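Hi D.,

Good news: the full-assembly prediction came through. Inputs first.
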Amino acid sequence: MGLTERINKTDKLSYYEGQIPIEYVYTYGLGLEKFFRAIKDQGKFLASTCKECGVTYLPARSFCERCLVKIEGTTAVPGTGTVYSYTTVHLNMDESPKKEPALVALIDMDGTDCRFLHYLTGVKADKVKVGMKVKPALKAKKDRKGHIEDIVGFQPS
Amino acid sequence: MREKVAIAGIGYTAFTSVSPGSSYRELTYEAAVKAYDEAGIEPKDVDSFICTSEDFLEGYSISDEYCNDQLGAVLKPAQTIPGDFIHSLAVGMMHVLTERFDIVVVQALSKASNMKTIPEMINFALDPVLNRPLDITAYMVAGLEMNRFLAEERATRKQCAAVVVKNKANALLNPVAAYGARVSIDHVLDSEPIAEPVCLLDVAPYADGAVVMVLCSEKLAPSLSDRPVWINGVGWSSDSPTLESREWTDAVAVRLAGDMAYKMAGIACPAKDVDLAEVNDEISFKELQHLEALRLFDPGQAGKATEDGRTSPGGTLPVNVSGGGLGVGHLFECSGAQKVLELVLQLRGEAGERQVSDASVGLAQAWRGIPSTSAAVAILSN
Ligand SMILES: [Zn+2]
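Then the structure:
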């Protein structure tokens, strides 16, 4: 058994180009629905706490990923936090170069056990530090649509 | 005592940046016939086939359906694991241990060069509501993680670059590695930034290739192989998929997968008992993070060990002698297969110029890549 010949001429190589259009609708579910509604309508960050283990999730969730118990109720948290890490990103999702490098941060969110991923705005890369305090910058209320882009980013507080 | 499971035959293609002369089926076929030939078996002798395949990476819905024919598994018991090869190896081991299957075949393939939109495909693994709308490369996850790793002084930037220097140099001695090169620390630091501090040379470049292995029971091993390699332990674990709620600096899932495998293998002191390790190095710093998670070095010590040459060939614990992902290539779900393959060659004493002397226990660790946390570990011995 085994192949005894191979294609060894580049001009004899053939291929067929295929593609499939892929589109989805991602429903938010109970937890995220409440979270994004509160951002849109009140400019508030809603978290939720597991009664079993005490972990506070942000965005709010409908069940605990550790205990698997149902989580009821939400609490507003300030939306402020501390930079846990940051990176200057040079490529878009498709790896085309960004016109301007983007500053992205992972933020330890006050009053929660979670971090939040978003852009850092109003600060130059060489001024950012791990441990820096930040606050959210939201779009004007009339422009908010109930999704992640309602948040412009986080800026030094 | 529990019966042992042997790796009795291996077959593999070269790992290459492109493979235009072969279809994905022919890559697996090449690896399969070599493995069957080595074990002296035919497909009809195989009791169970386990393939490793992920729809988006293969370009098929239900890619399971497209795994059988090139393995001789048509109309035979066959199944697919959408994880790493080491997950499949663990399942194969369990099949043998049930004593209902004497000979089990495990396969993995990467035909990365068939994929025109790999960056988008990797991005598609991010949360669609919270993360994807930011329209940034998924490597930002590595940038954030590496920056924090450095901020906690777990390693220096240069120690991370030293991983690249070592692994690409190791690959020069591996005839089937795609990306062997002599590079310097400055080459790495000066390469194009992607998501700082991650630069182009910190990232394992994609490669093609296939690996097939024949597993069998202890009682059958002598008739299939005169140099069987034994699977002593396997383990696997995944953290939360959510970037917002999971652990960042420590690869906790890797630690748990390692501990599970060590327990099964009866290894009490990994740093002493493991002779060589092939760990995931898809991004330079991950090798250091993974070595520490696997208890092969204390936290914060793997970088120094790399700098001092202790993880180089001839060091106290050679790591990624094969070249790893950085030197061999990023093989997606076949990544762990390349690592297990290297251990088999080393433990048989067939690794040629890169042979590690007196190797008797080896560890292979896979990670499913950005932005996942899924880890799998296998411990082999001769
Ligand atoms: Zn809980």
